[in-house]
Amino acid sequence: MEKWELLTDVRATLGEGPVWDEERGAIVWVDILEKRIWEYRPADADLTSYQLDQYVGAAALTESGGLLLAMRHGFYAMDRDTEKLRALGDPEADRPANRFNDGKCGPDGRFWAGTMSMGDKPGQGALYRLEEAGRIIRLVEGVSTSNGLDWSLDGRTFYYIDTPTREVAAFDYDRETGRIERRRTAIRVPEEDGYPDGMTLDAEGKLWIAHWGGSQVTRWDPETGRKLDALALPVPLVTSCAFGGEHYDELYVTSARVGLSTETLEQHPLSGGLFRFRPGVKGRSPFRCRDL
Question: What does pLDDT average to in each consecutive run of 10 residues of the chain (292 residues)?
Fold first, then answer.
């Protein structure tokens, strides 16, 4: 197993939500608290950023090459060439103390993203799906910290993390309607491993989970709930991961430095950086959202 590689030391306050853009040959991720989107092209180490005016919890690729964003004040479409934003709707306009935290495009071409309380109040968030007509559907309520999400290879199961539960929940998923139902626990994360944060599925149907407070990404079998592998990182706050590269055999990992003491940052100076592994298995290309 190859050791981690630091790709760029951007020192993100709260790096999150990496997604591989095959058309640009770049990994795209967000720094939520700095209101910034990063884009890094490994082939020539080109680093680009887009500065926004509000917290940005997640970015998803669209079919035309734009981005759909889940931000503090709702969903937006972004043109990367002009950097112009277009508001699509805010499902929590009545909850000003909340923000979006993580999201991903689903196999149905819809954007899925969830919220959380900025004051860490439990049960204040929810998981949403953005529809083609701009409608927003609430899927799960009573969420504390909405985080990682992905779909099984056969498209019949949806996986979801509400971080404080220390579990990966599984739901039956209907691609035609987008409906999820019959919630159950697929994976339980032990306390000593830290909290489960973002995640991604590999080409063998196994889940890779980033561990907040755990200094690692781990690989699990969601059918048995068994941990298969663990990759250590030199930072305590590991936030999310995504496969990319020309052959999707590279695992990109984001991290954070928010709330760390001066002493901890001195011990872990690479906190907030973007890392890469070659874990020996491949991922799949990310789904692209329909243009809205």
Answer: 88 98 98 98 97 98 97 96 96 97 95 96 97 91 98 97 98 94 98 97 98 98 97 98 98 98 98 97 97 90
- 70 Cβ partners below 8 Å, 6+ apart? 56, 57, 58, 59, 100, 101, 102, 103, 111, 113
User: For residue 17, what are its two tokens?
Assistant: 């939500």
CB-based contact 98:57 (threshold 8 Å) = no
Active site residue 102: no
Contacts 24+ apart (CB under 8 A), 122-129: 122/164, 124/95, 124/97, 124/98, 125/98, 125/101, 126/91, 126/92, 127/160, 128/91, 129/178
Q: Please pick, among 21, 162, 197, 202, the residue that the annotation labels catalytic.
A: 197
Residue 26 pairs in a beta bridge with 21
pTM (whole model) above 0.90: yes
Select from 181, 183, 227 the least CA-distant residue to 206: 227
- Residues 191 and 142: their CA atoms lie apart, in Å, by 22
Question: Which residues are bridge partners to 211 per DSSP?
Answer: 196, 216
DSSP state of 290: P
pLDDT of residue 134: 80
Q: Which residues contact 262 (CB under 8 A, 6 or more apart)?
A: none
> Can you give the pLDDT at residue 2?
66
Alpha-helical segments (H) within 79-191: none
